[in-house]
Amino acid sequence: MNPAFPSEPPQGGETASPEAPGRRTHQAQPGRATLATSYEPLPPGALEALGEDEPMEPPEQVDVTVVVPVQSPDAEVREVFQALGNELDRQGRRYEIIFIFDGVQGAAYQAAQDLRREQAARPGLVKIISFKSAFGESVCLSAAFERSAGRYLLTSPQYVQIDPLEVGPMLEALDRGADFVIPWRHPRVDPVLNRVQSAFFNWVIRRIIRGQFRDLNCYFRALRREVLEDISIYGDMYRFLPVMAFRQGFKVVELPVRHLKEWGKAGFFGLGVYVRRFLDILAVMFLTKFTLKPLRFFGTLGGLLMLIGGAICIYLAVQKFVFGQGVAGRPLLLMGVLLVVLGVQIVGFGLVGEIIIFSQARNLKEYRVERLYD
Amino acid sequence: MALSDQFLAPEPPTVRRPGPRARQANPRLSVVVPVFNEEDSLPVLHGEIVAALEPAGIDFEVLYVDDCSTDGSFAVMKRLWEADPRVRIVKFKRNCGQTAAMAAGFDRSRGELVATLDGDLQNDPADIPRMIAILEQGFDIVAGWRKRREDGLVLRRLPSRAANRLIAWIGGVNIHDTGCTLKIFRAAVVRSLSIYADQHRFLPVLSAGSGARVTETVVNHRARRYGRSKYGLSRATRVLLDLFSIKLLAQFSHRPLHYFGILALGFLALALAFAGMSLFAADPDPERGQQSLLQVTSGQFAINDWELIVVSIVMVVLMTVVYFAMLGLLGELAVKASGMHRRGILDRILNELH
What we know:
The complex is a heterodimer of chains A (374) and B (354).
Chain A: E1 47-49, E2 64-70, H1 77-91, E3 95-101, H2 106-118, E4 126-131, H3 137-147, E5 152-155, H4 167-175, E6 180-185, H5 192-209, E7 221-224, H6 225-230, H7 241-247, E8 252-257, H8 271-290, H9 294-321, H10 331-359, E9 369-373
Parallel strand pairs in A: 2-3, 2-5, 3-4, 6-8
Antiparallel strand pairs in A: 1-4, 5-7, 6-7
Helix pairs in contact in A: 5-8, 9-10
Chain B: H1 2-5, E1 14-15, E2 29-35, H2 41-53, E3 60-66, H3 73-83, E4 87-92, H4 98-108, E5 113-116, H5 128-135, E6 141-145, H6 153-171, E7 183-186, H7 187-191, H8 203-209, E8 214-218, H9 235-251, H10 256-280, E9 296-297, E10 300-301, H11 305-338, H12 340-343, H13 346-353
Parallel strand pairs in B: 2-3, 2-5, 3-4, 6-8
Antiparallel strand pairs in B: 5-7, 6-7, 9-10
């Protein structure tokens, strides 16, 4: 019934038994899990139903797994299925579509169930994963990945955002050896204000990672299975999946695509969004550059503070000992000392980080061997 | 080596050599060569390795680690592999860097000794037999020392010399040139360590921290013939920061509390010295005149501005002392949780070897 877990017993009826927590063992073996590649296990009971009458015969080989996280009851499930399905059929690729309902029921869920029934002639074509409550897009992606069979994964937003004709070039780029293909929506059909904000966000990311990505906010992505085997996604990391992949040495390719429409309203996002984005950027910077060498991050930061504090202290010392001015009443003295102490403490954090990483070094094989010639 | 096998990743697809397998199961020496875009140098290098080791009667294998080269390096390697049964290739999925390439080579090596060699012909494989002879006098690591370097003075040699003196001084290993790739290790040494993130240049320091005997010898160094250097000056700052962690990792990784304890003691001494100096050489207070904390004015203790600030600063520094002690405990926790303290047995293995 399920290529990832062929031994699971058939589940009858609409409400399958909730997932036993121990059964969600991920594919990554202990030895090859890097610091960032153990999958976030789904909370027990997160999966409500895996679908009803799954056939037991082994599914045929699948080229492309389309993953559609659904987060709104108004999602255009049918339109997405038709757009991508027709295009993939036309190209003669064998595919499956996984809809993940992230705590969403309503019309979209109904539409997906109807689709499954309509496509009963092609078993395994439409799969449905439904969460009892919203776990976010990263958990959706990992859940879909664990159940996917395709060599390639194609993630799509819950509406037809990109011209389906672009699927062909994107998958062909994977055929030609790319590991990750991200679209560049050009020209954009958003309101100007959103475009400006998005452009700024992408500019900051570009500065940080020194990769030439013009559009990271589009979730219509095509990637090889290996990418998700090596990089775990959690929290808001799905946003930065291309960045993480790029930093890990995967070949990330950007293709200009035709942008059809955009959900979401115009205007400034809330303050919270900006704060979260900023924290995300910080996290990405830290994770991509400094996971293995925390002292390079903490050391730079702490060293800078120590330099500033030290400069202040030296300035005051010169004032006192050379010019004979009293410095006792000056808050600058306390500030200088506090800056030095703060810098020292930050360096201390970096040292503890180094210890943690070093003690885990066995589990972080930095490299991935493609083939051995013996 | 039982030490590391249980932690190895599952076997990637392996291409076996067609025909009868001429290769010996466990050669004396494994030569590990990380390769990134060296298609011109590779055939020359391989010829030199064979020419150096075959007459010396050393049974060897050569492990080329292809770090996802973008030129024809892999095709060249493949030809070498087809022609010479002693060649093995580890092909990476993606570019992982020199340290990772070395780690991969170490993990796949089968020899009793492991030599590392640059792919760019700057090292001379002819030095290897002599280095093995030195190793057999009772050492675990023989590092190469490029005494007469053929690189640019300002950009390469001076920063490198400074960094090397610092590494030797901080790491407590008396070798002149940690950056030289040409080194010979006993297999137990490299297989007991997992190196990551530019740690290959610290291998002697890290191993010496867990009990390995390290020495060095002058080796031949040649100018680049093909390709271009993949290093620059920007690397120096990173090496400098790495230095601060390397002492901790090399000598205190099993007892981080000691390291932080020493740091804390340093700060404590600083605080006390500062307090003593300041309180007895107090700044004159314009209102109360020259006095110190120990003086009693009109029957009660009085503190002037200067003393107030000194006491505040001493308190802040004392807080740092406590803070570092806490960090040390946190480090102990991390080490215990990883089980690393149980693996610190390199000392014993080496003693059994000798």
